[in-house]
Amino acid sequence: QPPMNAWRQMMVLGAPWLLFCALQTGLRRRRGYVLLGWVTVLMACAVGAFGFLHQQSNGSILGYPVPYNTTCFGTFMNRNHAGVYLYLHAALALALTFWHIRRAGENTLKGGPHLVAAFLAFALALLVTLTSSTGGVGVVLALFILSLPLGYYFGFPGSRGSRKQIIIVTGAAMLLSAAAILAMVDLKPIIDRFQKKAATYQKVGTDDRAPLRRATWSLISDGGWTGRAWVGFGAGSYRWISPPYQAQQKEMQRDGKLFYRAIHAHNDWLEMLADWGIAGMLAVFAALLWLGRRLIRAFHGGHPETVPLALALLLLMAHAWVDLLFWFTPLMFTAAF
Question: For the whole model, what pTM was predicted?
Protein backbone atom coordinates (compact mmCIF):
# COMPACT_ATOMS: atom_id res chain seq x y z
CA GLN A 1 0.00 0.00 0.00
CA PRO A 2 1.38 3.48 -0.85
CA PRO A 3 2.51 5.36 2.27
CA MET A 4 -0.02 7.77 3.75
CA ASN A 5 1.10 11.37 4.00
CA ALA A 6 -0.49 14.81 4.09
CA TRP A 7 -0.67 15.11 0.29
CA ARG A 8 -2.26 11.70 -0.18
CA GLN A 9 -4.71 12.38 2.65
CA MET A 10 -5.65 15.66 0.99
CA MET A 11 -6.39 13.85 -2.27
CA VAL A 12 -8.39 11.11 -0.52
CA LEU A 13 -10.67 13.59 1.24
CA GLY A 14 -10.44 16.51 -1.19
CA ALA A 15 -11.88 14.75 -4.24
CA PRO A 16 -15.20 13.79 -2.52
CA TRP A 17 -15.39 17.32 -1.10
CA LEU A 18 -15.10 18.77 -4.62
CA LEU A 19 -17.84 16.42 -5.83
CA PHE A 20 -20.08 17.55 -2.97
CA CYS A 21 -19.45 21.22 -3.81
CA ALA A 22 -20.11 20.60 -7.51
CA LEU A 23 -23.44 18.89 -6.78
CA GLN A 24 -24.49 21.60 -4.34
CA THR A 25 -23.79 24.43 -6.75
CA GLY A 26 -24.41 22.85 -10.15
CA LEU A 27 -27.30 20.41 -9.72
CA ARG A 28 -30.39 22.11 -8.32
CA ARG A 29 -33.26 19.97 -9.63
CA ARG A 30 -34.36 16.90 -7.70
CA ARG A 31 -34.94 14.90 -10.89
CA GLY A 32 -31.26 15.23 -11.71
CA TYR A 33 -30.37 13.60 -8.40
CA VAL A 34 -32.93 10.86 -9.06
CA LEU A 35 -31.37 10.10 -12.44
CA LEU A 36 -27.87 10.01 -10.95
CA GLY A 37 -29.23 7.85 -8.14
CA TRP A 38 -30.51 5.26 -10.59
CA VAL A 39 -27.22 5.24 -12.46
CA THR A 40 -25.11 4.76 -9.34
CA VAL A 41 -27.44 2.10 -7.88
CA LEU A 42 -27.32 0.06 -11.08
CA MET A 43 -23.53 0.46 -11.17
CA ALA A 44 -23.31 -0.70 -7.55
CA CYS A 45 -25.31 -3.81 -8.42
CA ALA A 46 -22.88 -4.57 -11.24
CA VAL A 47 -19.88 -3.98 -8.96
CA GLY A 48 -21.42 -6.19 -6.28
CA ALA A 49 -22.17 -9.00 -8.74
CA PHE A 50 -18.60 -8.78 -10.07
CA GLY A 51 -17.29 -8.95 -6.51
CA PHE A 52 -19.38 -11.99 -5.66
CA LEU A 53 -18.12 -13.81 -8.76
CA HIS A 54 -14.48 -12.80 -8.21
CA GLN A 55 -13.47 -13.63 -4.66
CA GLN A 56 -9.86 -14.74 -4.79
CA SER A 57 -6.81 -14.74 -2.55
CA ASN A 58 -4.11 -14.81 -5.22
CA GLY A 59 -3.40 -13.61 -8.73
CA SER A 60 -4.64 -10.17 -9.73
CA ILE A 61 -7.87 -8.24 -10.18
CA LEU A 62 -7.97 -5.88 -13.18
CA GLY A 63 -4.17 -5.99 -13.26
CA TYR A 64 -3.73 -5.21 -9.55
CA PRO A 65 -2.07 -8.00 -7.53
CA VAL A 66 -4.08 -9.37 -4.62
CA PRO A 67 -2.14 -8.73 -1.36
CA TYR A 68 -0.83 -11.64 0.70
CA ASN A 69 -3.27 -13.21 3.17
CA THR A 70 -6.20 -11.33 1.63
CA THR A 71 -9.41 -12.57 0.06
CA CYS A 72 -10.75 -9.77 -2.08
CA PHE A 73 -14.34 -9.07 -3.06
CA GLY A 74 -13.99 -8.06 -6.68
CA THR A 75 -12.06 -4.81 -6.83
CA PHE A 76 -12.30 -4.38 -3.04
CA MET A 77 -9.21 -5.68 -1.26
CA ASN A 78 -10.95 -4.95 2.05
CA ARG A 79 -14.28 -6.77 2.30
CA ASN A 80 -15.51 -4.32 4.93
CA HIS A 81 -15.17 -1.54 2.37
CA ALA A 82 -17.24 -3.57 -0.06
CA GLY A 83 -19.95 -3.93 2.57
CA VAL A 84 -20.00 -0.19 3.26
CA TYR A 85 -20.06 0.71 -0.44
CA LEU A 86 -23.01 -1.61 -0.99
CA TYR A 87 -25.05 -0.57 2.06
CA LEU A 88 -24.70 3.11 1.13
CA HIS A 89 -26.17 2.26 -2.27
CA ALA A 90 -28.87 0.16 -0.62
CA ALA A 91 -29.87 3.36 1.20
CA LEU A 92 -29.97 5.16 -2.16
CA ALA A 93 -32.21 2.42 -3.56
CA LEU A 94 -34.55 2.76 -0.55
CA ALA A 95 -34.64 6.51 -1.10
CA LEU A 96 -35.61 5.96 -4.75
CA THR A 97 -38.34 3.56 -3.63
CA PHE A 98 -39.88 6.13 -1.31
CA TRP A 99 -39.49 8.94 -3.85
CA HIS A 100 -41.35 7.07 -6.57
CA ILE A 101 -44.10 6.03 -4.12
CA ARG A 102 -44.57 9.67 -3.11
CA ARG A 103 -44.57 10.91 -6.70
CA ALA A 104 -46.95 8.24 -8.00
CA GLY A 105 -49.67 9.07 -5.49
CA GLU A 106 -52.68 6.80 -5.84
CA ASN A 107 -51.28 5.17 -8.99
CA THR A 108 -48.63 3.18 -7.13
CA LEU A 109 -50.80 0.04 -7.03
CA LYS A 110 -50.53 -0.13 -10.82
CA GLY A 111 -46.82 -0.86 -10.50
CA GLY A 112 -43.90 1.34 -11.32
CA PRO A 113 -40.25 2.08 -10.65
CA HIS A 114 -40.71 1.81 -6.88
CA LEU A 115 -40.96 -1.98 -7.14
CA VAL A 116 -37.72 -2.14 -9.15
CA ALA A 117 -35.98 0.14 -6.67
CA ALA A 118 -37.23 -1.96 -3.75
CA PHE A 119 -35.90 -5.13 -5.39
CA LEU A 120 -32.52 -3.49 -6.02
CA ALA A 121 -32.39 -2.32 -2.40
CA PHE A 122 -32.84 -5.89 -1.23
CA ALA A 123 -30.36 -7.20 -3.80
CA LEU A 124 -27.74 -4.75 -2.53
CA ALA A 125 -28.50 -5.73 1.07
CA LEU A 126 -27.99 -9.37 0.11
CA LEU A 127 -24.67 -8.51 -1.53
CA VAL A 128 -23.62 -6.81 1.72
CA THR A 129 -24.27 -10.12 3.47
CA LEU A 130 -22.21 -11.98 0.90
CA THR A 131 -19.18 -9.79 1.61
CA SER A 132 -19.02 -11.47 5.07
CA SER A 133 -18.49 -8.04 6.65
CA THR A 134 -19.98 -8.21 10.14
CA GLY A 135 -20.08 -4.43 10.43
CA GLY A 136 -21.70 -4.10 7.02
CA VAL A 137 -24.35 -6.71 7.82
CA GLY A 138 -25.14 -5.08 11.16
CA VAL A 139 -25.53 -1.67 9.55
CA VAL A 140 -27.68 -2.84 6.65
CA LEU A 141 -30.02 -4.66 9.03
CA ALA A 142 -30.34 -1.53 11.16
CA LEU A 143 -30.88 0.53 8.01
CA PHE A 144 -33.82 -1.55 6.83
CA ILE A 145 -35.35 -2.02 10.28
CA LEU A 146 -35.30 1.74 10.94
CA SER A 147 -35.89 3.17 7.46
CA LEU A 148 -39.15 1.43 6.64
CA PRO A 149 -41.22 2.46 9.69
CA LEU A 150 -39.60 5.92 10.01
CA GLY A 151 -39.98 6.64 6.30
CA TYR A 152 -43.64 5.64 6.47
CA TYR A 153 -44.29 7.67 9.63
CA PHE A 154 -42.40 10.86 8.76
CA GLY A 155 -42.75 10.72 4.99
CA PHE A 156 -46.52 10.41 4.66
CA PRO A 157 -47.98 12.36 7.61
CA GLY A 158 -51.23 13.25 5.83
CA SER A 159 -51.74 10.17 3.70
CA ARG A 160 -50.64 7.19 5.78
CA GLY A 161 -53.95 5.42 5.26
CA SER A 162 -53.87 5.66 1.47
CA ARG A 163 -50.18 4.66 1.34
CA LYS A 164 -50.55 1.74 3.71
CA GLN A 165 -51.64 -0.66 0.97
CA ILE A 166 -48.75 0.13 -1.37
CA ILE A 167 -46.25 -0.16 1.47
CA ILE A 168 -47.68 -3.60 2.24
CA VAL A 169 -47.57 -4.63 -1.45
CA THR A 170 -43.98 -3.40 -1.84
CA GLY A 171 -42.95 -5.12 1.40
CA ALA A 172 -44.57 -8.38 0.28
CA ALA A 173 -42.71 -8.21 -3.04
CA MET A 174 -39.43 -7.72 -1.18
CA LEU A 175 -40.17 -10.65 1.14
CA LEU A 176 -40.95 -12.95 -1.79
CA SER A 177 -37.71 -11.89 -3.47
CA ALA A 178 -35.87 -12.48 -0.20
CA ALA A 179 -37.31 -15.96 0.20
CA ALA A 180 -36.41 -16.91 -3.36
CA ILE A 181 -32.84 -15.66 -3.14
CA LEU A 182 -32.06 -16.78 0.41
CA ALA A 183 -33.11 -20.30 -0.54
CA MET A 184 -30.14 -20.42 -2.93
CA VAL A 185 -27.49 -18.53 -0.93
CA ASP A 186 -25.09 -19.95 1.64
CA LEU A 187 -25.07 -17.59 4.64
CA LYS A 188 -22.98 -19.88 6.83
CA PRO A 189 -19.75 -17.82 6.54
CA ILE A 190 -21.31 -14.63 7.92
CA ILE A 191 -23.16 -16.55 10.63
CA ASP A 192 -19.89 -18.18 11.68
CA ARG A 193 -18.20 -14.76 11.84
CA PHE A 194 -20.91 -13.39 14.10
CA GLN A 195 -20.68 -16.43 16.36
CA LYS A 196 -16.89 -16.14 16.53
CA LYS A 197 -17.02 -12.46 17.44
CA ALA A 198 -19.72 -13.10 20.04
CA ALA A 199 -17.66 -15.90 21.60
CA THR A 200 -14.57 -13.66 21.72
CA TYR A 201 -16.56 -10.86 23.33
CA GLN A 202 -17.95 -13.20 25.99
CA LYS A 203 -14.47 -14.54 26.73
CA VAL A 204 -12.50 -11.28 26.72
CA GLY A 205 -15.24 -8.78 27.57
CA THR A 206 -14.47 -6.47 24.65
CA ASP A 207 -14.20 -6.45 20.86
CA ASP A 208 -11.06 -7.21 18.87
CA ARG A 209 -10.51 -3.53 17.96
CA ALA A 210 -10.27 -2.40 21.58
CA PRO A 211 -6.43 -2.72 21.76
CA LEU A 212 -6.09 -0.37 18.79
CA ARG A 213 -8.42 2.17 20.37
CA ARG A 214 -6.48 2.04 23.63
CA ALA A 215 -3.18 2.44 21.77
CA THR A 216 -4.50 5.41 19.81
CA TRP A 217 -5.84 7.11 22.92
CA SER A 218 -2.48 6.57 24.63
CA LEU A 219 -0.82 8.25 21.65
CA ILE A 220 -3.21 11.22 21.80
CA SER A 221 -2.98 11.70 25.58
CA ASP A 222 0.78 11.22 25.81
CA GLY A 223 2.13 14.33 27.51
CA GLY A 224 -1.30 15.51 28.60
CA TRP A 225 -2.40 19.00 27.60
CA THR A 226 1.22 20.00 27.09
CA GLY A 227 1.70 17.25 24.52
CA ARG A 228 0.50 17.01 20.90
CA ALA A 229 -3.24 16.74 21.65
CA TRP A 230 -3.82 20.32 20.50
CA VAL A 231 -2.11 20.19 17.11
CA GLY A 232 -1.77 16.45 16.47
CA PHE A 233 1.19 14.64 14.98
CA GLY A 234 0.53 15.67 11.40
CA ALA A 235 -1.83 14.53 8.64
CA GLY A 236 -1.12 10.98 7.51
CA SER A 237 1.41 10.33 10.28
CA TYR A 238 -0.51 7.67 12.24
CA ARG A 239 1.20 4.66 10.65
CA TRP A 240 4.64 6.04 11.55
CA ILE A 241 4.04 7.12 15.15
CA SER A 242 1.63 4.46 16.43
CA PRO A 243 3.81 1.27 16.65
CA PRO A 244 5.41 2.11 20.06
CA TYR A 245 1.95 2.60 21.55
CA GLN A 246 0.57 -0.52 19.90
CA ALA A 247 3.49 -2.48 21.38
CA GLN A 248 2.18 -1.62 24.88
CA GLN A 249 -1.00 -3.62 24.29
CA LYS A 250 -0.74 -7.22 25.48
CA GLU A 251 -3.14 -8.44 22.79
CA MET A 252 -0.73 -7.20 20.11
CA GLN A 253 2.38 -8.76 21.66
CA ARG A 254 4.08 -12.08 21.05
CA ASP A 255 7.06 -13.03 23.19
CA GLY A 256 6.98 -9.53 24.61
CA LYS A 257 7.29 -7.84 21.20
CA LEU A 258 4.86 -6.26 18.77
CA PHE A 259 3.90 -8.91 16.23
CA TYR A 260 1.09 -7.11 14.39
CA ARG A 261 1.44 -3.52 13.23
CA ALA A 262 -1.76 -1.75 12.25
CA ILE A 263 -1.29 1.18 9.90
CA HIS A 264 -4.70 2.62 10.81
CA ALA A 265 -6.50 2.96 14.15
CA HIS A 266 -9.71 1.29 12.91
CA ASN A 267 -11.46 4.16 14.65
CA ASP A 268 -11.46 7.03 12.19
CA TRP A 269 -12.51 9.64 14.76
CA LEU A 270 -9.58 8.85 17.05
CA GLU A 271 -7.19 8.67 14.11
CA MET A 272 -8.29 12.10 12.94
CA LEU A 273 -7.74 13.46 16.44
CA ALA A 274 -4.28 11.87 16.56
CA ASP A 275 -3.32 13.27 13.15
CA TRP A 276 -4.95 16.70 13.23
CA GLY A 277 -5.28 17.45 16.93
CA ILE A 278 -8.06 19.44 18.57
CA ALA A 279 -7.29 22.46 16.37
CA GLY A 280 -7.72 20.43 13.20
CA MET A 281 -10.89 18.80 14.49
CA LEU A 282 -12.59 22.20 14.82
CA ALA A 283 -13.29 22.14 11.08
CA VAL A 284 -14.71 18.62 11.45
CA PHE A 285 -16.97 19.74 14.30
CA ALA A 286 -18.20 22.69 12.22
CA ALA A 287 -19.01 20.34 9.31
CA LEU A 288 -20.82 17.95 11.66
CA LEU A 289 -22.86 20.83 13.08
CA TRP A 290 -23.92 21.85 9.56
CA LEU A 291 -24.65 18.23 8.65
CA GLY A 292 -26.58 17.69 11.88
CA ARG A 293 -29.02 20.44 11.00
CA ARG A 294 -29.57 18.84 7.60
CA LEU A 295 -30.09 15.41 9.16
CA ILE A 296 -32.73 16.78 11.54
CA ARG A 297 -34.57 18.34 8.61
CA ALA A 298 -34.52 14.94 6.86
CA PHE A 299 -37.09 13.66 9.36
CA HIS A 300 -39.59 16.44 8.67
CA GLY A 301 -42.86 15.33 7.14
CA GLY A 302 -43.53 14.96 3.44
CA HIS A 303 -40.20 13.67 2.13
CA PRO A 304 -39.75 9.97 2.96
CA GLU A 305 -36.80 9.62 0.57
CA THR A 306 -34.56 11.65 2.89
CA VAL A 307 -35.02 9.24 5.83
CA PRO A 308 -32.89 6.30 4.58
CA LEU A 309 -30.22 8.72 3.35
CA ALA A 310 -29.96 10.42 6.74
CA LEU A 311 -29.92 7.08 8.55
CA ALA A 312 -27.19 5.77 6.24
CA LEU A 313 -24.94 8.73 7.07
CA LEU A 314 -25.59 8.36 10.81
CA LEU A 315 -24.86 4.64 10.69
CA LEU A 316 -21.74 5.28 8.61
CA MET A 317 -20.43 7.67 11.26
CA ALA A 318 -21.20 5.12 13.97
CA HIS A 319 -19.52 2.36 11.96
CA ALA A 320 -16.39 4.55 11.71
CA TRP A 321 -15.88 4.10 15.47
CA VAL A 322 -14.86 0.48 14.91
CA ASP A 323 -13.50 0.38 11.38
CA LEU A 324 -11.37 2.07 8.73
CA LEU A 325 -13.77 3.94 6.42
CA PHE A 326 -13.04 7.62 5.90
CA TRP A 327 -9.68 7.03 4.22
CA PHE A 328 -11.20 5.14 1.28
CA THR A 329 -12.15 7.49 -1.56
CA PRO A 330 -14.99 5.48 -3.21
CA LEU A 331 -16.87 5.37 0.10
CA MET A 332 -16.47 9.11 0.57
CA PHE A 333 -17.64 9.76 -3.00
CA THR A 334 -20.83 7.81 -2.27
CA ALA A 335 -21.33 9.56 1.07
CA ALA A 336 -20.82 12.94 -0.62
CA PHE A 337 -23.51 12.12 -3.18
Answer: 0.85
